[in-house]
# Entry
Amino acid sequence: MAFGSRLVEVISLLELTRQSLRAWRSEQAGIALGFAGLLAVLFMIGTDPTQLRGVASPLGERIASNTTRSGPLPVYVPDLYQFGWTLVVGVYIAARVATATARDIGDGTLELLLTAPISRTRVLRARLFAMVFGFVGMTVFVGTVFVALSVLTETTIDPIVVWMIHALPVPFFLLCIVLGLFVGTITDRGRLAGLASGLLVLGVFAIGQLSPGSPLELISPLYYYDPVAIMHGTSVTAQQIGVPIVVALIVGGLSRLRFNRLDLS
Amino acid sequence: MSSIDAESVTKRYGSTRGIADVTFRVGSGESFGILGPAESGKTTLVRTLMGVQRPDTGSITIEGHDLDDRSSRTEMKRSVGFLPSSPSFDTSRTGRAVLEQHATLKAADRSDRLPVRLDISTVLDDPIRTYDDRDRRFLSVALAFMHDPSLVIMDEPFTALDRTARAELQSFLEREHEAGTSLLLATSRLDVVNRLCDRVGVLRNGHLVDIRPGESLPPNGGRRVRFITTAKIDSSDFNHAERISTTETGLAAENDERTTVELFYTGPLSELCERLSSYPIEDLTVEPPTLASVLAEWYGVRLTASGGDQLA
# Structure
């Protein structure tokens, strides 16, 4: 393909990605700020073990179990990441992508967009990229706040642990995006698509708890993402991260196939 | 090279008819109309040509690009503009934002000039939700023509426009056509195809039943004439009249029969006036026929309430 055509393709992909990013940035900023606020509260109240022991003795026990090689992490922070960050962002990602895709098909904006020389695959890819940029931005922001709070509260945490806590949900987030894309190509009703994909992500998340030992468990983030275990130096295998990524690639391929064959009406 | 080459194109929606075995060719620089009543398959045909729907069978080549090939279909849109019947905008965005986005995607170089020509430049910075029908339509026209396409495919482009806006758009399309742009225009408006189209394909119940030269269409191709006279009518007086019908409507005066005459006249108006002058005329109306009456004249069909037609 000529360099000029390739350049036009890249520019149009960037333009489509930029449009989605613009549309979603306030929501993503809201989620990131909200989570950062919760982190700040937990860091402020949770770093004084004496104070926490005064609140309840089990909390004191949690501090002991959360003690890293470098020092203690505030209580509930691991839970906040495992059940709050992963689940909230996962559900948001899937529901947002599904709603936007279904709505574009249903209200005809996709038809108008496709009057331009862009392929449907590129539209889908742009949506994927926009959400990847979105959650990477959110993760970087929350990670920075996490580090800043650690410094402010003199909580010393191994940088590798910080990196792992924030990077390991990424395979699950990728899976959430393609689940959202897939649901968005099944129905052209935005709300229904958002609700269905949110429930689907909840189901994927819960599989880890509901059916331990089954093959389905492998796609649940609960299978490989446990901040407490990470702090205790438990390593994560390539297989644990690879399974959600492979499933995401398969679902992504199916979404693309379905989207390309879809009749717009 | 043809602008459009459609061969035996069929599209169904489950058991519902869309279009069936449609074959036609649009030459380079030609203006081709697809004329048909509502539900005749015009929108299905246009959507299939746009590539937003896949035909069940048949082949379509547009500006040398085979629509069956996905990359060719995308490439085709660099030289083809599309004007959907009711374009859906994200109405929270401004017209300028939409224009800029499409200008980037289409590498368009007329995106600055067209809004001025179409007289929408003053509203471009407003959200699209504040636009009236005219401004929305003309914004979509700017999107369709901004990359100087060699062919533009339009579905009911005059819908929801008042008389002034229709005239503006008609004049714009005429100038673009004169500059060499091929046009495909799907519509149910006889006056539009009559003025804009070199040839017209007639779509009935999903079938392209006929292709006629544009000048053969009403009003050039015929007028409905209705007059009331007290004289006895001699049908041979009207050389270019078809389907003459007479109805005795009662007594105008004692011993005077009043007759209502209806006919479809395809000859010169001056000749009609000359013929009529030999009759005592009490009332006279001459009007361009409706699409329904034209279809009735041509094919002996009548339109049903749903918009489709059936044999009379």
Notes: The longest helix of chain A spans residues 3-46. Chain A has twelve helices and no strands. Chain A touches chain B at residues 8, 11-12, 15-16, 19, 107-109, 111-112, 114-119, 260-261, 263-265 (CB under 8 Å). Chain A has one domain: 17-261.
